[in-house]
Request: fold
Amino acid sequence: MNCAVATATLLYYFVACHCLLAFATATFSSPFTSIFHNDVAQSAKDVPHNTSGHRWLSKWRWKWTQDTPVTAYGKQFDENEEESIDEAKITTVEIIASRGYPVEIHEVITEDGYILELHRIPYGKGQVSKRDVEKQVVFIQHGFLNTDNVWIITPNNQGLAYILADTGVYDVWLGNARGNTYSRKHVYLDPSEEDYWNFSFDEMGKYDIPAVINYVLAKTGRNTMSYIGHSMGCAMFFIGMSLRPELNAKIDVMIGLAPASSVAESQTGLRFQAPFVNLLVNLFRILGVRIYEPVDSTRNNFRKRFCGPSLFLRYSLCQNPIFATTSDEYRDIDVNLLPVIDGHNPAGTSVRTAAHFAQNFNAGQTFQRYDFGPTENQLRYGQATPPAYDLSQVTCPVFLFWGQSDKVVDPRVYSHFSSPSTSTD
Reply:
């Protein structure tokens, strides 16, 4: 009898782990593949980063003020040098500096104590800093499981952050969502503790968005700013404006790229795993999984080592999860960037964030707050079911851009927006 019970238990965990691996592909913004990872930093100051370069950065960081431009490896980048820098192994700040751009590091503390790291490109390459020149402030927020590296790893004439900075018109700020590689700190919670990871994109919109908007405007002395978001970065914005309507007056325009709210029409694996979201979340809790899909997880490290520089393997056995999960192809992607993409993505988040996406798929066209279950919902929201975000509260100018063949956020879901929108392939 004991043998039968043991066998059944092992079978249960085998099936559970299989489901977890499947669930991990059910994201909608920046796809990923799951692996259990408990090697979380023991303290906020020991947050693991994916490069030895960042350890250099941390060593000298105390010498800088927040307004001090930095350079990669302690020297100004020279375009005429033949030295090759592996951008898969250095941080966002080091990449920006190595491209010859000024860059600043700023830390923002949210109302609930999370410490977010922002990166600023105050002016373009080769330009002279003119503090007396008033520039338009633009804040750019990445999507699910990314960091701000998504805006700066492409060539300078293609990277949105560089393009905006080089116009000489924009003061560019890059956001990092709580829990990712750069924003894994807290005033008193330790990332090794479960309590640190008790957040979803609900808290990102409720706390992170107000904090960064108010900080950036205070730092720059401006009254308004522009906001550009991708996927979850759009969801965060809509939540922030919905729960804090007074913030609308501080946004002169919001540009949403593949904006995510309802994912009811998703054609990815999300539709198969979403019905089991509660079971999967409980299993993660039992197994002690706190951080969800960091860049240095066992599986990601193995995949990067196994694939190496082989583009053939990256096309086949080692296809980047970002493309595999969305059933997308390498259209319009420089395949030489794949190792760099692997070096920075996925960047980690909480289990609850992934679960929130699955819950919203189950909710259909309703874009709703996190579902804690009837009892906890009653305590938190005053009702047994999670309330929907009131998107009518988003009153600032909003322009939405999407692809007609998007399998993650199907264009049909945009019908519930009242704001004018623009579609593009």
